[in-house]
Amino acid sequence: MTFAGLLALIVVVAAVTLVVRGWDVRLVLLAAALIIASAAGAPWVVVSEFLATFSNEKFVVPICTAMGFAYVLKHTGCERHLILLLVNPLRYVRGLLVPGVIAVGFVVNIPLVSQTSTAVCLGAVVVPLMRAAGYSMATVGACLLLGASVGGELLNPGAPELLTVESVTKVRTTVQAGSYLPPLVFTQLAVSAGVLWAMSVWWERRSEGPAAAEPAAPPSPSPERISLLKASVPLVPLVLLFAAAPPFSAVEVPAVWVVGDAPGGARNPAYGSRLIGLAMLVGVLCAAAAAPGRSRDCVKEFFAGAGYGFTNIISLIVTANCFGKAIKAAGLADTLGVLIADAPHLMLPLAALVPLAFAAICGSGMASTQSLYEFFHGPAERLGLDPVAIGALVSLGSAAGRTMSPVAAVVLMCGTLTNTNPFTLVKRVAGPLLAGIVVVIALRLIGLLNPI
């Protein structure tokens, strides 16, 4: 290993220490990237990557429009009606509350994409429901966190992780969301939810707090009337994206609507990301139409959400990309490639676990996938493996790492909603998530969980 590579490892350890001690993740990653790249004699790669990612519409358009749509859904109450529709049956079956809440969070995260927005929307309904059933706040927070962040967004063609893989492999996000991700995501969901469900029984028996001593109050039916029209609005962009892509191709969106005509008749590469933005805008219009009394503030809420997305998501992707470029300049990516070439059986475990570890440090699954996927793409092709399938593993590992990161926005939000220490939530979901990842890797190694 070169001097730059050795220094990079030392800087990485120092960066992890600072993040654990509460330093801002963006500051740490950017400073670490500059130090590593300077030691490698190429500090300009960090500056150029910062500027390129900062203005990259592949991330800015889908993420900011999706967050804007999520804010509009909250403003109009559409997300609340979807959650009430899904949660209502659980009010009458206390024994299924834990897996039920996790499943509802997973389903809601598919159209919303944002884990934090999913947690906020779900928490308003789920926290009082589970408390009335006698569950402790720590258990409620763990269920809320796992459901909102286990990986539901990976089944949405608008997920930035899928766009990262598409930009390298040219395989459309609808194909990834429809064929490559479901076997992995549903296996991860089933295993992690099952383990957390079993552990929750033990947690509640050990609990000695006031909530455990109180008799469980019978859940009461929701007094709010559920609007099926509003409940269907969050699904509009998802339906449009699948309808516009093969094999359905039921809707044809002319290029002139999103990117204009490209020279020579070729489709502009920005078509996919802008199509996602258009689908989110159509969803905003539907939300405004479903709640006319609140429509006048929908545009303001949309841009507020877009600003939140840029501040809290794009910024992480920018700094993580800079960090990834610095690591590559230091030669650590080549070292990883050599390791995989010498031990090909390590490809699948490393493709899931390395992004998991990085996401746990930086708190962003999107940033982890974006900065690390290319490290595995080349070795996968040289080994004759499907790089899209490897990308699915990278995305799944990143989602698991984000969910067990004490600095992730969704973890902090779930801690706030349940008045629970984020580290407590992380400790409760880490075991189930790692069990799920291990099962996924094991099944992939023996040839199962192949694309549908």
TrEMBL record:
Q: Name one GO cellular component term.
A: plasma membrane
Q: How does it sit in the membrane?
A: Multi-pass membrane protein
Location in the cell: Cell membrane
**Matching Pfam families:** DcuC
Question: Where is the chain membrane-spanning?
Answer: 25-47, 59-76, 96-125, 132-152, 180-203, 235-259, 271-290, 302-327, 347-367, 429-449
Q: Does the keyword Nucleus apply?
A: no
Query: What is the top-level taxon of the source organism?
Result: Bacteria
| One Gene Ontology term of the molecular function aspect | C4-dicarboxylate transmembrane transporter activity
Task: Supply the alphabetized keyword list.
Answer: Cell membrane, Membrane, Transmembrane, Transmembrane helix, Transport
- Report the sequence similarity comment from the record: Belongs to the DcuC/DcuD transporter (TC 2.A.61) family.
Q: Which NCBIfam families match?
A: DcuC_1 (NF037994)
**What protein is this chain from?**
C4-dicarboxylate ABC transporter
Which species is this UniProt entry from?
Answer: Gemmata obscuriglobus
